[in-house]
Specification:
Keywords: Decarboxylase, Lyase, Pyrimidine biosynthesis. The chain is 43% helix and 16% strand. It is of the alpha/beta class. Bound molecules: orotidine-5'-monophosphate.
């Protein structure tokens, strides 16, 4: 992993726009996060193109299916050599164990606990009557027991999870600079707060990609870290 913990969420529809955006800010970020929007539009070709920029690639596919299917999907992305891949921790122990076993040696597999766009009400809407904090703690424990490298959680939980999983790898999205627009994110903290609480990777998208001046935005976030 590089020094700068910021992975830019490249959630833009056109490949040319994505390359242009990343080239503008590449000196001020540590990696690229390519998610469902990017992968569904551009597939392996798109990932190869982005890898040419030379930054580590976090392939955020949030896999969640039966163990056999998830393991096969992991094998299909071996060739892309991602530094990090996500699976949903709620997919359960067998799925996570098989995902980790099928991943490449240099790929960290991390379990998404509770999406940062969820609050108590959203969780109870899907039948889970715990707080996001309790549910994230429970799924972090399950991810660890399943042999994953770490988890994805919000900045509200990362400090407590870090205390219980000292050598875990913690990816924190839902980050907003002070006074930044939350949008659909509900459990937000600033990049600095997440880092101080023990985040290994800071995932930041719209505060940079939708800024009037993405380079200035990336620089000012970097300056706070
Ligand atoms: O796995 C993720 O990266 C992820 C998990 C989560 O709980 N919340 C979350 O926002 N993300 C991703 O992090 C990025 C956040 O983007 P912004 O809200 O624009 O900074 C998006 O690409 C999301 O897909």
């Amino acid at each position: 992993m590089t020094h700068n913990p910021v992975f830019l969420a490249v959630d833009v529809p056109r490949l040319e726009t994505a390359i242009d955006l990343v080239q503008k800010v590449s000196g001020h970020i540590g990696g690229l996060k390519l998610g469902l929007e990017f992968f569904c539009a551009h597939g392996h070709h798109g990932v190869h193109e982005m890898a040419k920029i030379g930054l580590p690639i976090f392939l955020d596919l949030k896999l969640h299916d039966i163990p056999n299917t998830v393991a096969a999907a992991m094998q299909s992305i071996h060739v892309l050599e991602p530094a990090i891949v996500t699976v949903h921790a709620s997919g359960g122990r067998a799925m996570m164990e098989d995902a980790k076993a099928a991943a490449g040696e240099n790929t960290k597999v991390v379990g998404v606990t509770v999406l940062t766009s969820f609050d108590d009400k959203d969780l109870s809407g899907v039948g889970i009557d715990h707080s996001p904090y309790e549910q994230a703690m429970r799924l972090a424990e399950l991810s660890k027991a399943s042999g994953l490298d770490g988890i994805v959680c919000s900045g509200h939980e990362v400090g407590a999870i870090h205390k219980q999983w000292k050598d875990g790898f913690f990816v924190v999205p839902g980050l907003r600079p002070a006074k930044g627009k939350a949008g659909d994110q509900k459990r937000t903290v600033t990049p600095r707060e997440a880092r101080d609480a023990g985040a290994s990777v800071l995932v930041i998208g719209r505060p940079i990609s939708r800024a009037e001046n993405p380079l200035a935005a990336a620089r000012s976030i970097e300056a706070t870290l």
